[in-house]
Amino acid sequence: MGYFKNIGDSITTLITGMKVTMGYFVRAKEHVTLQYPDEKWPNPERNIGVGELDTYNVIRSKLHVDIDDCIGCKKCERACPVNCITIDTLKTDKGEDIGTTKLGTQKRLLVTRFTIDMTECMYCDLCTFPCPEECIYMTPDYRFERGDNKEVQVTNVERWRDRNNLIYEYSTVPKTEVDRRLQIIADAEAVKAAALEKARVAAEASATATPKPAENREITPGSGEEQAHE
């Protein structure tokens, strides 16, 4: 019985497979591979986020930063579990006004670097929640065509570089301005170090030049120190 059962199963499996194959011939357009990027599936309309948050993106994909609203607090950098966000800041000069955010916060730090490495991003969305200015968020744009900046609507601020164009730099501060500010800081540190060294040398010289006062001791009669003193 087992022998004939195996034969029957083989015939049934063959017929099932041929039905699937014939379906490709009869309804070819329903089974043809999508010719990406010339053809694209539409973004899903259903909310696949959590809860009833209206502001949650329909899908987790490409990160974006409104750099004009960034205050350089680095909360998103610390929240990232894979360290794909790198932020560098510099203190502004006293009284310098570099603008305010959309929420009215006065910016105190100059963001000289805001890099997101999308090759390491795990799309967890954890970086967006701690941001006090709501300037970093996930977009529904899943397209990362290499070198096709027009297709993915990359702006001049969002410059592509390295790793097949998947590392994004959002800072708009020119390198010349960063170098200028770093040089000012280095010069100030050098002046401070020179002043401290000068003060140290002066203190050592003063300690060496000042003689130690003679030790005054009273000699008690009968103590035996009189003869030694004589």
Defining key terms:
Alpha-Beta Plaits; 4 helices; 2 domains; 230 residues; two-stranded antiparallel sheet; four-stranded antiparallel beta sheet; alpha+beta
Kindly provide the name of the CATH class of the largest domain.
Alpha Beta
Q: What's the helical proportion of residues?
A: 25-40%
What portion of residues belong to β-strands?
A: 5-15%
- Biggest β-sheet strands, sense, barrel: 4 strands, antiparallel
For the biggest β-sheet, the strand order reads: 2-3-6-5
Q: Which structural class best describes the helix and strand composition? A: alpha+beta
Report the end-to-end length measured between terminal Cα atoms. Answer: 133 Å
Low-confidence stretches: 146-152
Order of helices and strands: HEHEEEEEHH
In total, how many domains does the architecture comprise?
A: 2
What is the fold-level CATH name, i.e. the topology of the largest domain? Alpha-Beta Plaits
Count of extended strands? 6
Shape: elongated
